[in-house]
Amino acid sequence: MEIVKVITAKILQQPNEKPAVRLKIMISLYNLLETPYCQFYVYMKLLNLAVDGKVTEHIIPSFKKIDNFLKDWKIGIPEQRELFLAVSNILKENKSMSKDAFKFLTSYLATFLGDDSHVLSEAKEEAACAIVEFVRAPDIFQCDLLDLPAVAQLEKDAKYALLYQLLKIFLTQRLDAYIDYHAANSTLLKSYGLVHEECIAKMRLLSLVDLSSDGSGQIPYELIRDTLQINDDEVELWVVRGLTAKLIDCKMDQMNQVVVVSHPTERVFGQHQWQALRTKLVTWRGNIVNVISTIQANKITEDGSQAAQGLVVR
């Protein structure tokens, strides 16, 4: 480990001088190592070098192997937090990878399960950042942030309570709640770089998802119009946008002016949804067992009947 520290320190001294070559040397060093923690140490230095030398494009492909790395390294929670946060920050600089950046930021926040308030407080800023990123992202409509203690602590926080309220609106309420929130907190939204028109567009899609999950199987055009606060001629446009984003599975019945929902979509997939899924799977498993038992019983009866017929022929 001491030798590794000396080598990496030398390589990192001038990260802007031939950074790609330095990165290649670091990767070679990583591949020579057999000690898991030494590998993790060098990989983290690799990330630092890539950022300082502005050559992150060479290291980003390795992020797909993070799960395998974690199995090999067997690092503790503090090291995992350091890794997830570093990866998220690198991906955040690439706009086309905002969804991946959000995934690693969520992984970072998930490592704070079971920690006390003092430890949780370390993640306040990152939790707030995750909320802003979710609200801003035009292609992320579902997340587990509400189930994470690192995020839940913001509900009663003097600085971030309003931001937590915004998250609850985006995950559990409809457009009218956001309109009321914006009327009272427009300055706050601007301070986080959130664009009102973009928030409205996302809330319309989320409200449409909410309408599809009420269990009725049909959504009248009129209800969509009123909920999304749009004109009559815009209803089908927003339904198509929901279909394109794969948020709803439905068909439009223009004759009866209703949207027929094939499969409802959950806006939040937390503990309650997992429990409901478990119940369904147990039911399906029981049904399959009954079908197999019936088939086997009928087969035994049929075989016995054929054998009896054979005896009569003889």
Structure characterization notes:
The protein contains 15 helices and 3 strands. The protein has helices at residues 2-11, 19-32, 36-52, 66-73, 77-92, 98-110, 117-120, 124-136, 149-152, 161-172, 175-191, 196-212, 221-228, 235-244, 271-313; strands at 218-220, 249-253, 258-263. A 3-stranded antiparallel sheet has the order 1-3-2. Helix 2 (19-32) packs antiparallel against helix 3, helix 6 runs antiparallel to helix 8 (124-136) and helix 11 packs antiparallel against helix 12. The chain is globular, with a radius of gyration of 27 Å. The N and C termini lie far apart (85 Å).
What's a quick, concise take on this entry?
This protein has 314 residues and is mainly alpha-helical.
Fold blueprint:
Elements (H helix, E strand, L loop, with lengths): L1 H10 L7 H14 L3 H17 L13 H8 L3 H16 L5 H13 L6 H4 L3 H13 L12 H4 L8 H12 L2 H17 L4 H17 L5 E3 H8 L6 H10 L4 E5 L4 E6 L7 H43 L1
Antiparallel strand pairs: 1-3, 2-3
Helix pairs in contact: 2-3, 5-6, 6-8, 8-10, 10-11, 11-12, 12-14
What features would you highlight for this structure?
314 residues; mainly alpha; three-stranded antiparallel beta sheet; 4% strand; globular
Q: Order of strands across the biggest sheet?
A: 1-3-2
Q: Name the average pLDDT.
A: 90
Gross morphology is globular
Radius of gyration: 27 Å
Q: Low-confidence runs (pLDDT<50, min 5 residues)? A: none
Biggest sheet, open or closed, and with what strands and sense? 3 strands, antiparallel
Helicity, in percent? Answer: 55-70%
Beta-strand percent range: under 5%
Structural class by secondary-structure content: mainly alpha
Q: End-to-end distance, in Å?
A: 85 Å
Find the count of extended strands (DSSP E, 2+ residues): 3
How many helices? The count is 15
The H-and-E topology, N to C, reads as HHHHHHHHHHHHEHHEEH
Protein name: PCI domain-containing protein
Domain PCI: 100-266
InterPro entries: COPS7/eIF3m (IPR045237), eIF3m_C_helix (IPR040750), PCI_dom (IPR000717)
Family: Belongs to the CSN7/EIF3M family. CSN7 subfamily.
